[in-house]
């Protein structure tokens, strides 16, 4: 204990020589922490050190603190990808539409292309199956790329990466390098 205190005082003195104002503040903080911290209880010395006169002393077992199970951070579990493909989707026919409907049509064309090429079942009206239908999910990156130049000037084509998970859902991402 004494050695530790001497080391601390030496460190404080060195700091005071370099930067007196900061060292004083740090010293005050260390003193406050030392006052607030409870003093360590000294355990009895082992029987070997004391000598033959000492009796066996029962040392209390350390108290185990049960840590509460923290819920895992909200991370999306990585879905198991069954199939992954890269496509260049032609969107040039979207330019047939009037200017204020072009990008909307381009998005619909992308959906239709993905449903066809990734073999998704098209949703039908009046379908009352208990099984949840497979979904097509277009990532924000793809959507932003489509709408980047506004409603009147969608891209003529776009490269995408389509990934199908084990449940049959398809997620469309931008192809790497685009």
Helix content: 25-40%
User: N- to C-terminal separation?
Assistant: 62 Å
CATH C-level class of the domain at 84-121 and 134-174 is Alpha Beta
User: Roughly what is the average pLDDT, rounded to an integer?
Assistant: 76
Radius of gyration of CA atoms, rounded to a whole number:
35 Å
Approximate strand percentage? 15-25%
The CATH superfamily name of the domain at 84-121 and 134-174 is Ribosomal protein L31
Unreliable stretches, pLDDT < 50, 5 or more residues?
none
What can you tell me about this protein's structure?
The protein starts with a helix and ends with a strand. It has a domain at 84-121 and 134-174: Ribosomal protein L31 (Ribosomal Protein L31e, Chain: W), CATH 3.10.440.10. It has helices at residues 2-18, 20-36, 47-50, 102-117, 140-147, and strands at 81-90, 136-138, 157-165, 170-174. It has a four-stranded mixed β-sheet. Strand 3 and strand 4 form a beta hairpin. The mean pLDDT is 76. It is built from five helices and four strands. Helix 1 (2-18) packs antiparallel against helix 2 (20-36). By secondary structure, it is α+β, with helices and mostly antiparallel strands. 35% of the residues lie in helices and 15% in strands. The radius of gyration is 35 Å and the shape is elongated.
Question: How would you concisely characterize the structure shown here?
Answer:
The protein has about 180 residues and is α+β, with helices and mostly antiparallel strands.
